[in-house]
Design goal:
alpha+beta; 253 residues; globular; 2 domains
Length: 253
């Protein structure tokens, strides 16, 4: 909201005159807090990181443009979720292993399917991503293609095209697979953030969007009090698979 809008709302609510200078000082203080938060030191290792983006309308040179604001959630070595930051461009993580969301892949596949056959196609896709190994999954995909390519050839093509980034989770045991094969954690977060920004037609600049999202994140993160389920077992697997990238005292309270 603009300073004038905030001032008007507060005066209406509290019945007292509010100085625009006060509002300006408060919002600037929030921006300083955002900058401090963005520049804080992070842990050296996060075994799992979820990345997603919110599309936000921001004014730029007199025009309203869609701009991606990236949100990252990390699961730290104690198994607790933590918002790592907000960015208006994407960073690079050279040692990261990319796992696309299976749930999104299935949803995208079902877009091509008639309502009458969706349940059957979804069940057949489930045999692919619930296979015991990547090789077995590919065998199941071939069986799926043989059954459905005559009607929906696009689906098996989509899975083959993305196969490299759909299958890394097969390299992990059950303790970890169910944590990393879907982006439900960040989807839930972004759903809450979209509720905050949906009433805004556009933001005057990127800083204004950052302020609002930062305050919303602070409120949401207070509810994250429990570690990921079965985290100790998962952490042992990470320690084996990632070697010296996981400190020996990882997860120690």
């Amino acid at each position: 909201m603009s300073t004038r809008e905030i001032t008007g709302h507060l005066e209406e609510i509290y019945g007292v005159e509010v100085s625009p200078a006060l509002i300006s000082n408060v919002t600037e203080a929030v921006m300083e807090e955002v900058k401090t938060w963005q520049g804080r030191p992070l842990d050296a290792v996060y075994p799992i990181v979820y990345l997603d983006a919110l599309m936000v309308k921001i004014r730029d040179a007199g025009h309203v443009r869609n701009r991606a604001i990236y949100v990252a959630i990390g699961v730290n070595l104690k198994g607790n979720k933590e918002v790592l930051g907000l960015w208006t461009n994407e960073a690079v993580f050279p040692q990261a292993q990319v796992q696309l969301c299976i749930v999104h892949q299935v949803r995208g596949s079902l877009n091509y399917v008639s309502w009458r056959q969706r349940k059957e196609v979804a069940a057949d896709l489930q045999t692919v991503y619930r296979a015991a190994t990547a090789d077995d999954a590919y065998f199941k995909l071939e069986a799926f293609a043989e059954k459905w390519d005559g009607t929906y050839p696009t689906i098996s093509q989509m899975w083959r095209r993305n196969w490299e980034h759909l299958t890394p989770f097969f390299g992990y045991p059950a303790d970890i697979r169910k944590v990393i094969y879907t982006t439900n954690a960040i989807e839930s977060l972004n759903m809450s953030l979209r509720k905050v920004i949906k009433t805004r037609g556009s933001f005057p600049n990127a800083d204004a969007a950052m302020k609002l999202l930062f305050l919303a994140l602070e409120h949401i993160a207070k509810k994250w009090t429990m570690p990921v389920q079965n985290w100790k077992a998962a952490l042992q697997r990470f320690a084996i698979l990632l070697g010296d990238r996981v400190p020996q005292d990882a997860g120690v309270s």
